[in-house]
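Dear H.,

Thanks for agreeing to be a second pair of eyes. The structure we're designing against is below in token form, covering all 192 positions.
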């Protein structure tokens, strides 16, 4: 019985992992980046964070805030967002993307596959309608980024690389191993 409890404890400890997450959102649209206009250009936003920072706000809303993000617009090049936006997923509305810290959507994608996604695993690429706040400016190192319109569907992909145990988890694993070895030692000592 004790061995089963020790193995259960060890198994639970091993399940708590965190890892780097890379999120890529794309869409084709028209707008401005600083003083430069773009028309029907591929817009790619890439954000990187860590799944240990996922916050559960309840009601199927999960966020990583802040999350550093870069913006690439075909023909204009790359830049970074001045203030780290937040990555979010709204399971109830089936959409995920990036928003400002005040919750204003920069760019997001709607897809039914997002209904159980919680920013802690890999998913996609998923294709679906883009969500955005047309005409609003979002601060980047190259000036305000403004999307006036999006054409067609966009994509959303999240990739979690090499899950690493949280520091507290390593302690639990160590305690589990010590307890397991202790139980085995007692059993061997009683048998002798």
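And this is the sequence the design step returned. I haven't edited it by hand at all.
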């Amino acid at each position: 019985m004790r061995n089963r409890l020790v193995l259960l404890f060890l198994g639970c400890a091993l399940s708590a992992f965190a890892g780097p997450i890379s999120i890529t959102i794309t869409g084709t649209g028209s707008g401005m980046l600083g003083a430069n206009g773009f028309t029907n250009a591929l817009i790619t936003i890439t954000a990187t964070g860590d799944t240990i920072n996922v916050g559960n706000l309840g009601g199927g809303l999960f966020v990583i805030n802040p999350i550093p993000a870069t913006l690439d617009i075909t023909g204009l090049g790359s830049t970074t967002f001045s203030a780290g936006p937040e990555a979010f997923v709204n399971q109830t509305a089936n959409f995920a993307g990036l928003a400002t810290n005040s919750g204003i959507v920069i760019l997001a994608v709607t897809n039914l596959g997002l209904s159980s996604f919680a920013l802690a695993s890999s998913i996609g690429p998923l294709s679906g309608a883009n969500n955005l706040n047309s005409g609003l400016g979002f601060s980047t190192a190259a000036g305000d980024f403004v999307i006036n319109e999006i054409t067609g569907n966009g994509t959303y992909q999240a990739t979690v690389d090499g899950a690493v145990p949280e520091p507290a988890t390593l302690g639990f694993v160590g305690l589990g191993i010590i307890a397991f070895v202790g139980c085995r030692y007692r059993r061997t000592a009683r048998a002798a």
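Two observations from my side: The first strand starts at residue 17 and ends at 18. The chain has a mean pLDDT of 84.

Warmly,
E.
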